[in-house]
Specification:
- This protein is an alpha/beta fold.
- It has two domains: 5-94 and 180-319, P-loop containing nucleotide triphosphate hydrolases (Rossmann fold, 3-Layer(aba) Sandwich); 105-176, no CATH class.
- The protein has helices at 49-57, 84-93, 112-123, 129-142, 148-151, 161-174, 191-208, 219-225, 243-248, 253-260; strands at residues 5-18, 21-34, 38-42, 65-74, 77-78, 95-98, 179-183, 211-216, 228-233, 236-242, 311-314, 317-319.
- The chain has an eight-stranded mixed beta sheet, with helices on both faces. The protein has a four-stranded antiparallel beta sheet with strand order 2-1-4-5, covered by helices on one side.
- Strand 9 and strand 10 form a beta hairpin.
- Helix 3 packs parallel to helix 6.
- The model has no long low-confidence stretch (mean pLDDT 92).
- Bound molecules: adenosine-5'-diphosphate and magnesium ion.
- Residues 49-50, 183-184 line the site of magnesium ion.
Length: 324
């Protein structure tokens, strides 16, 4: 299974200049995304998942956020140094992103029809208004929005959260990107809607062959839709593996902790889930050595001295831990 790599991140370092000094929210992160495949990025809140996504999109808050080092190769071309206009073309048509809260991407003062139409207009400059309108309605229909013709005339705040998320997905797919980055796209939605949205994304992926980077703090979701998984902890990569391998044979104590905190049907009510004690360390006071040491049930004296590096522990399986 040698699939074409379309995005390759190499030793990405992303920093913020804050009042208390410079912090590195992403440190030395590397991964690949293959055509038609889904990579899951998982980790607790504050682990650097969104910052990784915003770095790829070059949408870090200016001027405080910056890519300090590393490469982001999109079809073998480094986009870290790409001029803003060129990056604007890639955004939406090469790589597009859907956010946890759709209102961050939807414009509250424009009707839904106008917003989705703009994506088509930019992507297919030869299309006339009538064709754009037809395409827009079709796209809304495809993402399961009832009465799409009426919805075209509505403003984003008039529809439900689940419907807004579908509009975002419609807009993301309208540009026919090679890669879709979905940053916790279902976290704010209720469970039934979550499942519907995941199914929809899977169906659209099958149809278009696009790659997806699916970001979530819930490993349970990863099992359903991802081919590969990267577990992040405090801005670094803890473990990377094909999804089945990670679930069968997790190596990093953090991954093991995350796996044992997945809710299971039989114990949803009675058995209290195991959780990992403690919190992700603040980037302002990172420990020397391994960043997970203060919460790790397997910590050893060597973990306090220097940070572990990513090691191969099997086919396509990498872990950053002194146990191996
Ligand atoms: N705009 C910002 N200014 C300063 N620090 C930030 C900013 N955005 C993110 N960070 C830092 O990066 C860390 C990781 O954030 P983020 O990538 O959003 O985490 P998550 O994994 O929950 O998506 C945060 O805990 C914070 O320390
Ligand atoms: Mg986030």
């Amino acid at each position: 299974m040698n699939k074409q790599v379309i995005l390759k991140i190499k030793n990405l370092v992303t920093a913020f200049d804050t009042e208390e000094g410079r912090i590195r929210a992403v440190e030395n992160v590397s991964f690949e995304v293959k055509k038609g495949q889904t990579l899951g990025i998982v980790g607790e809140s504050g682990c650097g998942k969104s910052v990784t996504a915003l770095s790829i999109m070059r949408l870090l808050p200016k001027p405080i956020g910056m890519i300090e080092g590393g490469k982001i190769l999109f079809h073998d071309k480094d986009i870290v140094t790409l001029p803003a206009e060129k990056m604007h073309e890639i955004r939406g048509y090469g790589i597009s992103m859907i956010f946890q809260e759709p209102m961050t991407a939807l414009n509250p003062v424009h009707k839904i029809g106008k917003q989705i139409g703009e994506v088509f207009q930019l992507h297919f400059p030869d299309m006339n208004d009538k064709e754009i309108r037809k395409k827009s309605v079709e796209m809304l229909q495809k993402v399961g929005i009832p009465e799409p013709i009426q919805r075209m005339e509505e403003y984003p705040h008039k529809i439900s959260g689940g419907m807004r998320q579908r509009v975002m997905i419609a807009m993301a797919f309208a540009g026919e990107p090679d890669i879709l980055i979905a940053d916790e796209p279902t976290t704010a939605l209720d469970v039934t809607i979550q499942a519907q949205i995941l199914k929809l994304m899977e169906a659209l992926q099958r149809e278009t062959g696009m790659a997806i980077i699916f970001i979530t703090h819930a490993l349970g979701v990863i099992a359903e839709i991802c081919d590969d998984v990267m577990v992040m902890y405090a801005g670094t990569v803890a473990e990377k593996a094909p999804v089945e391998e990670l679930f069968k044979n997790p190596k990093h104590p953090y991954s093991i902790g995350l796996l044992s905190s997945i809710p299971r049907l039989e114990n949803e009510r009675k058995v209290r889930l195991k959780t990992i004690k403690g919190m992700v360390p603040s980037l302002y006071e990172l420990p020397k050595g391994c960043r997970f040491q203060n919460r790790c049930p397997k910590a050893m004296p060597c973990c306090e001295i220097e940070p572990p590096v990513l090691k191969s522990v099997g086919e396509d399986h990498f872990v950053s831990c002194f146990l191996y």
